[in-house]
Amino acid sequence: VYIATPSDLNIFDQLNMLGKQNYITDFWKRRDSNAATPENEFKTEHYRRIAYANFNFSRTSDSNDGWNSDMGRVYIRYGEPSEIERHPSTRGEEPWEKWNYNEIQGGVYFIFVDQDGYGVYRLVHSTMTGELQDDSWEEKIKNQESYDN
To answer: Cα Rg for the chain, rounded, in angstroms?
Structure first.
């Protein structure tokens, strides 16, 4: 769902079962980074990223839903960040992370905040084209305590 284009999804939805099976085969073949090998490296890497996201970003150890989190989606689409800045909770701020990707669009970043305190970080801002952009993201990392004092 994170790598298919809207056009891919539209075509897929209009096919019968056999057409869908063939389309999926062609979908992965078109993305194979090295057609000379029997393994589809792109597909292998994609499923590795999903497994990583499920292991590291799921709500619970049993939920296996990390692929569906904001951090999971970004990890699956863009891979391992070049650098991660982790900011634990402080008296004035919620826990937050900044993921830097130095090799994409000349350098982009993603800001994730754990606003609920349950370890589920949500994307609040990015400099990546086509991603959520909110120049007031720093307001979202302020916790309630900072407003009470």
So the answer is: 18
Give residue 148's pLDDT.
Answer: 47
Prediction pTM value: 0.87
pLDDT by residue (tens digit) across 97-119? 999 999 999 999 999 999 888 88
Which of 74-79's residues contact partners 24+ apart within 8 Å by CB, and which partners? 74/99, 74/110, 74/123, 75/49, 76/2, 76/3, 76/46, 76/49, 76/50, 77/2, 77/3, 78/104, 78/128, 79/45, 79/49
DSSP class per residue in 92-108: SB--EEEEEETTSTTSE
42 CB contacts (<8 Å, ≥6 apart)?
Answer: 28, 31, 32, 33
b or e along 29-53 (b: 16 or more beta carbons within 10 Å of the residue's beta carbon)? eeeeeeeeeeebebbeebeebbebb
User: Of 63, 79, 61, whose CA–CA distance to 71 is shortest?
Assistant: 79
Distance CA 109, CA 98 (A): 7
